[in-house]
Amino acid sequence: MIESKYFYKGNFGIERETLRVDSQGKLAQTRHPFGNDEHITRDFCENQIELVTPVCSSVAEAVEALAELDKTARKVLAPNSESIWLYSNPPHFDSEDEIPIADFTGDHSSKRAYREVLERKYGKKLMLFSGIHFNFSFSEEFLHEINTENEDFHSFRDSLYLRLYKQLMTHSWLLVLLTASSPYYDASLDKDGKSGIILSEYSSLRNSKRGYWNKFLPILDHKSLRTFTGSIKKHVITGSLYSASELYLPIRLKPKGVNTLENLAANGVDHIELRMFDLNPSAPLGIDKRDLEFAHLLILYLLSQPDFDFTPELQEKAVNEHKNAALLEPDAKLLERGDDILENMTVHFSDNEHALEIISFERQKLNGRKVCNSIVNNIYE
Predict the structure, then answer these.
(1) What is the DSSP letter of 295?
(2) Whether residue 144 has pLDDT greater than 80
(3) Is residue 287 a contact partner of residue 280, using CB atoms and an 8 Å limit?
(4) Most CB atoms closer than 10 Å: which of 85, 211, 213, 334?
């Protein structure tokens, strides 16, 4: 493990998507009541709140910031008898007419135009899926410290995050296995007018093949940040993607400031975003702090793993394994590989008692998935 007093430090942020519902548990039909607050905004639709924490110095601080935003949002919603729907899958709705596109206007009207493209391409129902995005960056002190060859700092930083991106893409399935929380859904998601709660074949609909994916597999070039952004731009130029924001993969590299491909290419990587976390209905804020702490530990662990050529075949394999992990009964081999990774992480963080507690917490959940798999197999044998 890297010896550095900055090893566990970094910058952390949380984005939480949820739906606003009325006193009957139906999608709220009122306008977004938070104005242009940059920390309480909208995602796809007018009744979908996105809480965006400021940049924080720890997971705990980010969760505290999320709690304050959640408290503020609930206080504003209460007079209208509205509340927050803390499930990744939406409540019952009668038709897509109840899903108004976020009404961005003025300088932000391009955001509405983008959402109208998404509506035509994917339909509104898909856009109701909600979840947690976890943002992380290493401290600059840490990056300078591990840049032992004194490379150009920006090039070193971009290369490191690109290497980490590849590792996280190939291990995103593990986080799905450990945090999937949405096996039930309302039948209206299948067809307008239908009702009733359905137990699906997925533990997480939004991470499954029914969730957020492009209509094709975007193959990217990971040799350098220049080739990476260039390969995304090619998909935009050909019309396969409307913009880089439409790249529906579970990991993203993000620039500082305005999130555009041009900004990323010109100014480099500021942080990395993990987009696969379901809302956890058993956690008051929709996320268990321990799951984000584990994600941080996984990032640190993967930093120690060797670089590799992320070939088109491996990119396809990564996406397929991510979708497989979202099954109610995932491939038993994934469960075993998950066990191996947790064992390796236990050794890697053997001198950190808190890290070991977090890994043990995740191991218990993984063991639970194994038991469930075994029960299902016995039922169908």
Answers:
(1) H
(2) yes
(3) yes
(4) 85
pLDDT tens figures, 109-134: 788 888 988 989 999 999 999 999 99
Average pLDDT over residues 205-217: 95
Q: Which positions ≥6 away from 321 have C-beta within 8 Å?
A: 170, 172, 173, 334
**8 A C-beta contact, residue 130 and residue 19:** yes
Tell me the domain boundaries of the chain.
10-330
Closest CA to 173 of 217, 146, 203: 203
Helix (H, G, I), strand (E, B) or coil at 125: helix
Rounded Cα distance, 315 and 250, in Å: 12
How far is the C-alpha of 126 from the C-alpha of 60, rounded, in Å? 31
Q: Cβ-count burial of 347 within 10 angstroms (0-12 exposed, 13-18 middle, 19+ buried)? A: exposed
pLDDT of residue 380: 44
- What is the per-residue pLDDT across 64-88, written as a single tens digit (0 to 9) for each? 999 999 999 999 999 999 999 999 9
- CATH assignment, 10-330: 3.30.590.20
pTM of the prediction?
0.95
What pLDDT does residue 376 have?
A: 57
Tens-digit pLDDT profile for residues 280-321? 999 999 999 999 999 999 999 999 999 999 999 999 999 999
> Directed axis angle between helix 289-302 and helix 59-77, to 10°?
140
158: helix, strand or coil:
helix
Report helix, strand and coil shares of the chain as percent, to nearest 5: 50, 15, 35
- pLDDT at position 110 is 83
Q: Which helix (H) or strand (E) holds 273?
A: strand 271-278
Side chain identity, residue 47: N
Question: Cα 51 from chain centroid?
Answer: 14
The CB density around residue 303, as the number of other CB atoms within 10 Å, is: 17
Q: Long-range contact list for 112-116, CB < 8 A, 24+ apart?
A: 114/242, 114/243, 114/245, 115/44, 115/45
Tell me the C-alpha distance between 118 and 131, whole Å. Answer: 18
